[in-house]
Design brief:
single chain, alpha/beta, Rossmann fold, 6 helices, 49% helix
């Protein structure tokens, strides 16, 4: 196992336990990793701008304030990551996840996408930029185990 500690950013869908499954799998495998992620409390993420900087009547500006504050965390953690995992879930359009994948690709960060086959066509360009496309959190853990092996 590599002695280097890896920083892995887990981006994307917030409505399932995929992050926990990857963290638990990596821990069980003894991988030398540190995980980070966006704020996954949907309400806190959406409303941070107006809660911190003041109310907005127009939802565009409310969302803009929140997105700008969240971008401080996201851009910093992706920039410092050794690899980025982006999960596209089945229920909602995750435009932010697609943006994070593109940002990681633009920074030449190793990228693993995680999604069901139902999204293959819609994500073909994102997957083409990825180093691996996984279907399950267990596959992500196996990719990490492989690349961290000595």
């Amino acid at each position: 196992m590599s002695k280097q500690s890896w920083n892995i950013y887990l981006s994307g869908e917030i409505h399932s336990d995929w992050r926990e499954r990857i963290v638990e799998g990596a821990s069980a495998a003894g991988l030398p990793v540190n995980f980070s992620a966006p704020i996954t409390d949907h309400e806190a993420s959406d409303m941070c701008g107006v809660r911190i900087l003041g109310d907005e009547q127009d939802t565009f500006w409310r969302d803009r304030k929140g997105a700008s504050i969240n971008a401080i965390r996201t851009s910093s953690l992706i920039s410092g990551a050794d690899a980025v995992v982006v999960r596209f879930g089945p229920k909602y359009k995750q435009w932010n996840a697609a943006f994070d994948a593109g940002y990681a690709a633009a920074l030449n960060k190793p990228l693993i996408t995680l999604h069901d086959e139902d999204h293959d066509h819609a994500l073909k360009e994102v997957d083409a930029a990825a180093n691996a496309t996984a279907r399950t959190p267990d596959q992500v853990v196996e990719v990490l185990r492989y690349v961290m092996a000595e």
